[in-house]
């Protein structure tokens, strides 16, 4: 016969509801970077999108902030196995930035001010799946977390969400970025545990 203490409902699992396999819940926001944190002043920030034909679209910081913004609330998952749920950001959707861009490309390389790069299929940046984020939790994005602006692609491992982003290059071919050239997975789906090549 089972004995259950009155009022006992078992361990609450709501907060673990969205954890991909192998991930643990982080209460803080860990800071992980491939190198030192660059200090990019907004007045010197410029974001560009270059197509496979060399056509360039560019925004200054003031022009970027004038674009329609969204406030996505998303879960994020790091390849080092932490996940953070219900994070709130503010930024410009890639759908907005790419609306006037004529391209036949299938792939994108994100470029950061510190030289970091990462590759993402173009379809993973569209249909409300990604943003160039400049606020986190209602505050300007800290430099340690990629401020003044970072790419946010929450359905992929967080190394795909390039910090200190300065532009995107559209391409017909899938070329590896910084971590992908070192053996990380080209795609990086946390639900399929695609951490490294061969996963």
What features would you describe in this structure?
The protein is mainly beta. The chain contains two helices and eleven strands, in the order βββαββαββββββ. β4 and β5 form a beta hairpin. Mean pLDDT is 90; it is low at 1-14.
The DSSP helix count reads 2
What global shape is seen? globular
Q: Please state the structural category.
A: mainly beta
Proportion of residues in helical segments:
under 10%
Distance, first to last CA: 45 Å
Poorly predicted segments: 1-14
Q: Into which percentage range does the β-strand content fall?
A: 25-35%
Rg over CA atoms, rounded to whole Å, is 18 Å
Quantity of strands, as a count? 11
**Largest sheet descriptor:** 6 strands, mixed
Give short descriptive properties of this protein.
single chain; 199 residues; mainly beta; 6-stranded mixed sheet; 5-stranded mixed sheet; globular; disordered N terminus
Brief synopsis:
With 199 residues, this protein is mainly beta. Helix content is 5%, strand content 29%.
Structural topology:
Layout: E1 24-25, E2 46-50, E3 56-60, H1 61-65, E4 73-77, E5 82-93, H2 94-98, E6 107-112, E7 117-121, E8 131-136, E9 139-140, E10 150-152, E11 165-171
């Amino acid at each position: 016969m089972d004995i259950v203490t009155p009022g006992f409902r078992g361990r609450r699992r709501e907060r673990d509801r969205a954890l991909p396999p192998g991930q643990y819940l982080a209460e803080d926001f860990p800071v992980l970077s491939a190198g030192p944190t660059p200090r990019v002043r907004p007045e010197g920030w410029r974001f560009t999108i270059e197509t496979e034909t060399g056509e360039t679209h560019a925004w200054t910081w003031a022009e970027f902030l004038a674009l329609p913004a969204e406030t996505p609330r998303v879960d994020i998952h790091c390849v080092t196995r932490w996940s953070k749920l219900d994070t709130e950001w503010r930024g410009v959707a890639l759908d907005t930035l790419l609306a006037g861009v004529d391209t036949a490309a299938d792939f994108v390389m994100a470029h950061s001010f510190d030289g970091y790069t990462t590759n993402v299929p173009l379809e993973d940046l569209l249909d409300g799946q990604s943003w160039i984020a400049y606020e986190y939790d209602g505050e300007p994005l800290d430099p340690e977390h990629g401020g003044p602006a970072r790419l946010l692609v929450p359905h992929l491992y967080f190394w795909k969400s390039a910090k200190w982003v300065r532009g995107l290059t559209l391409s017909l071919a899938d070329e590896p970025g910084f971590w992908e050239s070192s053996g990380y997975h080209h795609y990086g789906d946390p639900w399929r545990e695609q951490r490294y090549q061969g996963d």
